[in-house]
Amino acid sequence: MKSPLTLYLAAPRGFCAGVDRAIKIVEMAIEKWGAPVYVRHEIVHNRHVVEDLRAKGAVFVDELDEVPDDRPVIFSAHGVPKSVPAEAARRNMVYVDATCPLVSKVHIEAERHFQNGLQLVMIGHAGHPETLGTMGQLPEGEVLLVETVEDVANIAPRDPDRLAYITQTTLSVDDTAEIVAALKARFPNIVGPHRKDICYATTNRQEAVKAIAGRIDALVVIGSQNSSNSRRLVEVGRAAGCPHGQLVNGAQEIDWRALEGTQAVGITAGASAPEILVEQVVEAFRARFDVTLIPVETAREDVEFKVPRILREPA
C-alpha cells in the first residue's frame, strides 16, 4: 500500500509574463526569419525551455562575435549591457531585445539617476546576467555592487550624499529589505526607486511559498540551478519554517530518500519553469504515494507584455 501524502501546490508558480514574452519572441523570430536564429545567452534560465527552443532552430551563444552578420540575434530576458546592441547596430545586424520590461524599468531608473548626478548602488548577485546587463547601462565605476548586508560597510562611494540604489528583480524580498535598511542606515540621503524593483512575479511566488511553508515537511522547487528566482524560493521556504528544500529540473532529479517519512510536501516552480514540469512532478508523487492534492493560491496574475514591433510586422 502507498503511504498517504498531502501535496500543497503553490500558486502563482511557473512562467511569468516576461518569460512568456521572451519565449514567444524566439518562436516568432524562427517563424519569421527561419532557422537558425541566434540567442545571446540562455533566453531564460531553464534547461527544458532552452532544449525545446534549440530543437526548433535556436542557437544559443555566449557572445555576439559568435553570431554571423546575416542572421538575426535575440538578447535574453535578463537584459544586456549597452555595448551589445551598439555592436549589433555597428554590424548592421537584425536584433531583437527580449529584455523583460520590468528589468528595462530598472535600466531606465539607473540612467535617470546617473543623469541627475547620482552614483548607483546595485543590490544583486555578481556575475548574474541581469546584474551584468544593468551595471552595463552606465560607465564603469558608476554602479557599485552589494550582495550582502556586510558588503554595505565596505563600499566607498565618491560622495556618500549623492547615491541611489537599484536591485536585481529576482532577489529574496526579505533579504533585500535587510540590505536596503543597511544602506539607509549608512547613507541616510540615498534615493530609492519610486516602486520596488523586485518584480511582481518574484514577490508573488515567494509569498505563496511562505503561505505553505508552515504546513509542509519538505518543499520541491522546480527550476534550474542557474535560475536566481528559483534558488530564492528554496531559501524563502527554509526561512519560513520548512525544514527541507530541493531545487530540481524535473521529476527525474527528486531525491526520494530525503522525502522518506514526510507527510506533507509543497510544490512550486520558478518563473522560468513550464507547467508541464509541475504536472510531471505531481504524477511522480502519485506513483509513489496516496496523494491528496491541495492547491493554495495567494494571488492572481493577469499581466501580459507585448512582443517587439519588428516581430509583428510582415517579413
From TrEMBL:
Reaction catalyzed: dimethylallyl diphosphate + 2 oxidized [2Fe-2S]-[ferredoxin] + H2O = (2E)-4-hydroxy-3-methylbut-2-enyl diphosphate + 2 reduced [2Fe-2S]-[ferredoxin] + 2 H(+); isopentenyl diphosphate + 2 oxidized [2Fe-2S]-[ferredoxin] + H2O = (2E)-4-hydroxy-3-methylbut-2-enyl diphosphate + 2 reduced [2Fe-2S]-[ferredoxin] + 2 H(+)
Pfam families listed in its UniProt record: LYTB (PF02401)
Binding site for (2E)-4-hydroxy-3-methylbut-2-enyl diphosphate: H45, H78, H128, T169, S227, S228, N229, S272
Residues annotated as catalytic: E130
A Gene Ontology BP annotation from the UniProt entry: dimethylallyl diphosphate biosynthetic process
Bound cofactor: record note: Binds 1 [4Fe-4S] cluster per subunit.
InterPro entries membership: LytB/IspH (IPR003451)
Cofactor list: [4Fe-4S] cluster
Binding site for dimethylallyl diphosphate: H45, H78, H128, S227, S228, N229, S272
Entry EC number(s): 1.17.7.4
Keywords: 4Fe-4S, Iron, Iron-sulfur, Isoprene biosynthesis, Metal-binding, Oxidoreductase
Protein name per its UniProtKB record: 4-hydroxy-3-methylbut-2-enyl diphosphate reductase
